[in-house]
């Protein structure tokens, strides 16, 4: 029948016939190109032109060689096609003859040969088996290549046609990229054109004879498969025959030695020696049995390894040709189901060591028995002379010779056993590696290719007939029968667990009563403890156990039975049991007046909301895990699984609604942190992504991710409950500590005679919890959660290696001859994103963890610890930035120039910021100022309240916070009043009138300082008369105070003392004086002088009068104005 494949082949044939270029000239010969290449140095061209010409000639020669290779393959293909019908017929006849021929048993054909001859024959058959296996691999490759040739040839010829058109266009224009073609470049294009034409002729001939090649490959495959199977059976039979002969020899030896032991009579020496020989013969027999066993294992392992190798080779070719197709997915599913179950001998390493040790002991005995006569004489020397007889000597000599022979045989047997063990160990390692690689390849390909057709309109139109067909084809009767048999045929397995379920059900009321008593103790200090919450959680788990244990018991029994669908149903029941245990426990924890409300102190509205949410989500998860568990283990049936697709799509939609409702409608969603909101958004988006994946045909991928998503949900729920338990435990401990402190206060009050102080029971306040302990616990829980999360997703991590095949771009690496193109894949891009996330997490948490775990336990200043953690944050950010760029292809040899340019540019443009940054580091480590120091910098004085990398905060004496750049502290003048010593000198300056008693002034000043308690005795206060001022005699009192806070108070107190005592002693404190003269319009000049004291007292009146300056002036007349009276305020 004329198929679509034949039509494509004919179309490609016609396309190739029309593809001959009209403009191509004959290509040069290989000899001519080689001569030009050898004489290129004679042209004396510049280096650049010579290298370019050399490259052109080498490419021309490579194309010519490729053309010659294609022509040779074409000739060989023609000969193969000419002989293909005959060879196919011969293969079919030989296969029929083999199937009709009767196989003569190996024991009948080779039973008369001894063990060495059989071992030589076995070696020959093993060599023939390897040759047949190699031929079978070639036949498989031929069949697979013929099967996939039309698709591959279509791609190759289409690409060649595009290149032919490009070459014709270049030859027609005579230019390439705007440059005129040289003769050598034309030769290069003609050679490439000839190479492409030869390749197309080869592919055309392959397409023409593809059916013949496919028949030939299939006939060879069938024939060689039969030969390989017969050869494997013959090898096994030969090995069995060899094992039987070895065991027969060993058994004969044991029988002979047993007979000799019985004939030894009453001589104790003969009995001892005979027993030793019998023991060696027994070990020889056991060694022979073990050698036979290892040989059989080795043969089976080698066959499995050959089969896996053949499967791996065929799979690689199928993946290359059928990548991304539904046919490939079906092939992959069948290959995965056909993978063998590996049964490895895990005790081989210890056995090899024991064999080596025992062989060393045997070699020592062989050295002792190297001369049997000397050994016998040594034995007889220990016997009394009257007991030594010629008969005893001859018998001992025969036993010694027999033991020597036994030791030789045992040594050979141990050597063979050791070699077989080592070979088996190596083969098992190779088999394990091959199986793991093949399984990883299958998982990777199955994960990234569609398993179903996309859910289009046609799928939804035919959903009801397909669903009816699927339900009708389900083996309901046989499945129920198998399920019943699996559950009833192992009653002993059920009895212990059924007994446990019965006890839990019987004690259910007692568990509720115990839980209520625990709830009643919460909040009462004397009855409350940290263990109440774990015990309450355990009781809730026990309340959920009966149903979970029943489901798990049924699932385990079905998995052991493994008939029909029992294994898949058993896995589904186990998953349902786990989901029930987790969600029902959470449902019980969220009960009214339950653990969440009483122990964890969660808000009532939040608990009620979460309880309803957990109930709905639990029902959805129960349905989802049942479908996932069954469908995931039947990948070959996914294309027709309408029922499963409908269930998972419904579950995904409901999960999206429930998770979105938790994110948006939760009573506490407004107070949630950004991290929790981000996690909520991600979890809400995951079911949407899985829904779309199923719609686009990635049903198997969605099932694999759903399984891990549900496990991750379990982990998050458990993590939240464990974290809340630890937080409550710390709260109880803090409350108990506060209560103990209250008792201590009351005890102290009683000792002081005051017993009226009541002891109040402190309230549970989370602020009293030790923050460092809480932070450490949360970090430990987070680390445990991340580790558990890795275990959940570890199996799927390997499938992301497929992303290495998606190339985003390439960059050049190396220079000159070492230059190469390095691809950057989607995996690298995602890896860079992971590095960025890890960098942010480490930069935000690792410095704090370091401070809590390490720096807080060291005797470091506050600034040093802050500087260390800050620099660590910057270092982590820098390393993460460089690593991210390196992952994206920006290597350091290129990045260093960017870093240098940025450093220079930023150094000029942001030099103040960098100067402040470096100054902050110097301040934090050198510590010229510390938090709490009182400083003066410029006109600013205050107390240092905060030191950061860029700036320092100073609180002045008006309680204003002033931000000062750190550069100011390094480059400016700084006064630190409390850096090393808080003792400071206070200086008081004052002046007295001329004519004052200077000794009295000194005495009063010293008295003021010495009597003041704020002034230090050492150094002693000092008074100096320093200067004759314009109107004062200047004195200076120097004194020292202990604290900075005493400076202003001591000045206030001493000034008041001086004012009081100087007034008593009539010592005037000078002040600056001025003489004021007034001149009126009549030319009269007056001097402003104080008025005389009033008659009522000596106190000044505060008034002034005008006194004429020139007394010779005529007295004023009646009309002359009176001098005005002025008052000085």
UniProtKB/TrEMBL annotation:
Topology with respect to the bilayer: Multi-pass membrane protein
Domain (Mechanosensitive ion channel transmembrane helices 2/3) ranges: 870-911
Entry's Gene Ontology molecular function annotations: mechanosensitive monoatomic ion channel activity
UniProt-recorded name of the protein: Mechanosensitive channel MscK
Source domain of life: Bacteria
Domain Mechanosensitive ion channel inner membrane: 491-809
Biological-process GO terms, alphabetical: intracellular water homeostasis
Domain Mechanosensitive ion channel MscS porin intervals: 36-270
Similarity section: Belongs to the MscS (TC 1.A.23) family.
Record Pfam families: MS_channel_1st, MS_channel_2nd, MS_channel_3rd, MscS_porin, MscS_TM
Keyword Cell membrane attached: yes
Bias kind Polar residues: ranges: 1101-1115
Chain ranges of the Mechanosensitive ion channel MscS domain: 913-978
Composition skew (Basic and acidic residues), residue ranges: 1119-1129
Subcellular locations according to the entry: Cell membrane
Main localization category: membrane
Coiled coil residues, start to end: 221-248
Keywords for the protein's UniProt record, in alphabetical order: Cell membrane, Coiled coil, Membrane, Signal, Transmembrane, Transmembrane helix
UniProt keyword Signal, yes or no: yes
TM helices/strands, residue ranges: 491-507, 535-560, 572-591, 612-630, 642-660, 681-700, 712-731, 779-803, 829-850, 871-892, 898-925
């Amino acid at each position: 029948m004329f198929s679509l494949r034949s039509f494509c082949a004919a179309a490609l044939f016609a396309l190739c016939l029309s593809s001959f270029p009209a403009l191509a000239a004959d290509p040069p010969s290989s000899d001519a190109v080689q001569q030009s290449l050898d004489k290129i140095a004679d042209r004396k061209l510049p280096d650049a032109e010579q290298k370019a010409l050399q490259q052109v000639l080498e490419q021309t020669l490579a194309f010519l060689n490729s053309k010659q290779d294609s022509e040779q393959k074409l000739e060989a293909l023609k000969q193969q096609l000419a002989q293909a019908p005959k060879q196919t017929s011969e293969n079919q006849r030989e296969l029929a003859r083999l199937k009709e021929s009767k196989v003569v048993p190996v024991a009948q054909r080779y039973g008369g040969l001894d063990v060495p001859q059989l071992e030589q024959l076995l070696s020959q058959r093993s060599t023939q088996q390897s040759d047949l296996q190699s031929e079978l691999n070639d036949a498989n490759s031929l069949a697979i290549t013929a099967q996939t040739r039309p698709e591959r040839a279509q791609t190759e010829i289409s690409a060649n046609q595009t290149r032919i058109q490009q070459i014709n266009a270049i030859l027609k224009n005579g230019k390439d990229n705007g440059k005129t073609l040289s003769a050598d470049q034309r030769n290069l294009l003609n050679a490439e054109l000839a190479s492409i034409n030869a390749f197309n002729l080869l592919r055309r001939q392959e397409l023409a004879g593809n059916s013949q090649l496919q028949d030939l490959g299939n006939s060879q495959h069938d024939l060689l498969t039969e030969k390989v199977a017969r050869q494997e059976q013959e090898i096994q039979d030969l090995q069995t025959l060899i094992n039987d002969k070895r065991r027969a020899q060993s058994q004969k030896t044991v029988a002979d030695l047993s007979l000799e032991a019985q004939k030894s009579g009453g001589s104790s020496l003969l009995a001892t020696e005979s027993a030793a020989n019998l023991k060696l013969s027994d070990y020889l027999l056991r060694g022979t049995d073990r050698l036979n066993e290892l040989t059989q294992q080795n043969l089976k392992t080698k066959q499995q390894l050959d089969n896996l190798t053949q499967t791996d080779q065929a799979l690689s070719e199928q993946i290359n040709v059928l990548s991304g197709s539904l046919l490939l997915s079906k092939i992959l599913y069948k290959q995965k189901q056909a993978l063998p179950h590996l049964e490895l001998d895990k005790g081989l390493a210890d056995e090899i060591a024991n064999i080596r040790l025992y062989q060393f002991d045997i070699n020592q005995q062989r050295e002792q028995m190297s001369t049997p006569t000397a050994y016998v004489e040594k034995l007889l020397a220990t016997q009394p002379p009257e007991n030594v007889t010629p008969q005893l000597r001859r018998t001992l000599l025969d036993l010694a010779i027999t033991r020597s022979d036994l030791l030789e045989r045992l040594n050979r047997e141990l050597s063979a056993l050791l070699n077989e063990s080592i070979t088996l160990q190596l083969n098992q390692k190779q088999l394990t590696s091959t199986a793991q690689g093949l399984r990883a390849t299958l998982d990777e390909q199955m994960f990234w290719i569609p398993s179903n057709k996309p859910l289009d309109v046609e799928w939804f139109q035919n959903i009801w007939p397909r669903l009816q067909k699927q339900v009708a084809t389900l083996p309901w009767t046989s499945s129920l029968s198998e399920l019943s048999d699996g559950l009833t045929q192992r009653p002993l397995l059920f009895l212990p667990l059924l007994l446990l379920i019965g006890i839990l059900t019987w004690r259910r009321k007692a568990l509720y009563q115990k839980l209520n008593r625990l709830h009643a103790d919460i909040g009462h200090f004397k009855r409350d403890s940290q263990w109440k919450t774990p015990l309450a959680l355990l009781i809730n788990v026990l309340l959920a156990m009966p149903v979970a244990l029943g489901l798990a018991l049924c699932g385990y029994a079905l998995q052991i039975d493994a008939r029909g669908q029992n294994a898949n149903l058993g896995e589904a029941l186990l998953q349902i049991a786990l989901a029930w245990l987790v969600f029902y426990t959470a449902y019980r924890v969220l009960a009214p007046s339950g653990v969440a409300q009483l122990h964890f102190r969660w808000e009532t509205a939040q608990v009620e909301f979460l309880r309803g949410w957990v109930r709905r989500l639990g029902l959805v998860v129960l349905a989802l895990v049942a479908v996932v568990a069954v469908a995931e283990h039947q990948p070959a049936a996914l294309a027709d699984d309408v029922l499963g697709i409908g269930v998972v799509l419904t579950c995904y939609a409901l999960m999206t609604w429930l998770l979105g409702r938790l994110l948006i409608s939760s009573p506490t969603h407004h107070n949630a942190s950004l991290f929790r909101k981000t996690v909520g958004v991600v979890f809400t988006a995951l079911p949407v992504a899985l829904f779309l994946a199923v719609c686009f045909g990635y049903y198997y991928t969605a099932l694999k991710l759903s399984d891990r998503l549900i496990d991750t949900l379990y982990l998050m729920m458990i993590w939240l409950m464990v974290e809340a338990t630890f937080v409550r435990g710390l709260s109880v401990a803090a409350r108990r500590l506060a209560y103990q402190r209250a008792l201590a206060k009351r005890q102290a009050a009683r000792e002081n005679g005051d017993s009226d102080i009541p002891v109040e029971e402190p309230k549970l306040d989370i602020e009293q919890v030790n923050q460092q302990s809480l932070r450490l616990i949360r970090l430990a829980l987070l680390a445990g959660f991340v580790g558990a999360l890795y275990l959940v997703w570890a199996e799927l991590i390997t499938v992301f290696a497929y992303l290495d095949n998606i190339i985003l771009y390439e960059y050049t690496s190396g220079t000159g001859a070492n230059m190469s193109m390095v691809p950057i894949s989607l995996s690298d891009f995602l890896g860079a994103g992971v590095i960025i996330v890890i960098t942010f997490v480490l930069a935000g948490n690792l410095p704090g963890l370091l401070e809590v775990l390490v720096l807080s336990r060291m005797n470091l200043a506050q600034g040093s610890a802050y500087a260390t953690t800050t620099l660590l944050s910057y270092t982590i950010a820098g390393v993460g930035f460089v690593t991210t760029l390196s992952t994206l292809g920006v290597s350091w040899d290129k990045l260093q120039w960017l870093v240098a340019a940025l450093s220079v540019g930023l150094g000029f443009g942001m030099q103040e910021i960098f100067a402040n940054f470096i100054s902050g580091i110097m301040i934090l480590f050198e510590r010229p100022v510390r938090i709490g120091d009182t400083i003066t910098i410029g006109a600013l004085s205050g107390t240092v309240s905060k030191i950061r990398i860029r700036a320092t905060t100073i609180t002045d004496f008006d309680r204003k916070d002033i931000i000062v750049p750190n550069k100011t502290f390094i480059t400016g003048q700084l006064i630190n009043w409390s850096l090393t010593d808080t003792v400071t000198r206070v200086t008081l300056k004052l002046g007295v009138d001329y004519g004052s008693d200077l000794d009295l002034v000194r005495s009063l000043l010293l008295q003021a300082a010495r009597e003041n308690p704020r002034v230090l005795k050492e150094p002693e206060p000092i008074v100096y008369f320093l200067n004759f001022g314009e109107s004062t005699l200047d004195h200076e009192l120097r004194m020292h105070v202990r604290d900075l806070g005493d400076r202003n108070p001591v000045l206030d107190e001493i000034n008041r003392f001086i004012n009081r005592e100087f007034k008593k002693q009539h010592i005037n404190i000078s002040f600056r004086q001025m003489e004021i003269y007034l001149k009126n319009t009549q030319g009269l000049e007056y001097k402003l002088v104080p008025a005389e004291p009033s008659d009522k007292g000596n106190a000044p009146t505060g008034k002034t009068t005008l006194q004429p300056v020139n007394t010779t002036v005529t007295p004023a007349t009646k009309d002359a104005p009176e001098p005005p009276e002025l008052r000085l305020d």
